[in-house]
Amino acid sequence: xxxxxxxxxxxxxxxxxxxxxxxxxxxxxxxxxxxxxxxxxxxxxxxxxxxxxxxxxxxxxxxxxxxxxxxxxxxxxxxxxxxxxxxxxxxxxxxxxxxxxxxxxxxxxxxxxxxxxxxxxxxxxxxxxxxxxxxxxxxxxxxxxxxxxxxxxxxxxxxxxxxxxxxxxxxxxxxxxxxxxxxxxxxxxxxxxxxxxxxxxxxxxxxxxxxxxxxxxxxxxxxxxxxxxxxxxxxxxxxxxxxxxxxxxxxxxxxxxxxxxxxxxxxxxxxxxxxxxxxxxxxxxxxxxxxxxxxxxxxxxxxxxxxxxxxxxxxxxxxxxxxxxxxxxxxxxxx
Length: 335
Hints:
- Helices cover 47% and strands 16% of the residues.
- It is of the alpha/beta class.
- The strands form 3 sheets. A 5-stranded parallel sheet has the order 2-1-3-4-5, with helices on both faces. It has a 4-stranded mixed sheet with strand order 6-13-12-11. A 4-stranded mixed sheet has the order 7-8-9-10.
- α5 links the parallel β3 and β4.
- The longest helix has 38 residues.
């Protein structure tokens, strides 16, 4: 029976072998993406642009279809298109032959994925597209395949090596299909001027929706904001800090502009017998980092993290109108 030392050595050897396998997979798949980039710089680029224009011209939706692993990739492509402003729907090719062809209209455009281009389940859908003159965009590596010959736009994928050591399991091939689908979605929403506001309308829930919330919608408003004018004694400023309970107080100038901030940390750094009789101007940190009410919650969180602070004053025309705390952002699910 193997002893503890030999078991440890065997485990370490197994870990090294597994790591090498993972690195080989990533290397092979990276080479696949590089091949796709090279193809886009060559003839595939023209076809890609034609596909984008074909989709933009469609008055209806983008119907994405594919079988097996290509179908799984197709579902993700449809979801990405839909979430970035291009109405899209996945239709399973097997179900299409049993009634789901009825969801496809003449105003739609079809993206069909099949690595070989000879997927039997796609044939009825291809015939339907030809019969009703529905634009067909093919993503395939089979240049002379049934799907390629039927396509209005052929996105011919480069010859790539599967990461599977047997060369059988779709790995690199599905990755490059997915990458091309992402490229189509991004090109489409960039060409349409898709904005963060549009994105928020389609993603009202979850972390994405939270990050796209405006600061003005979550900030603590002006009447609850701890503020004292320049020249205030620290004893009065601490009373204001304590009353509002945010661990800070903003200092305003003669014209109402925010000119400084005092935090609990500033109090500790300036702790002395003189502190209560000092002016806030002697203790405050000048020109504090702020946010605007029309900035997004995700941006505010980025500033808080970068500055390593817990609170930001919200200013409009340099005047404080509220504040936003790290905990406010946590509450709505930004982090």
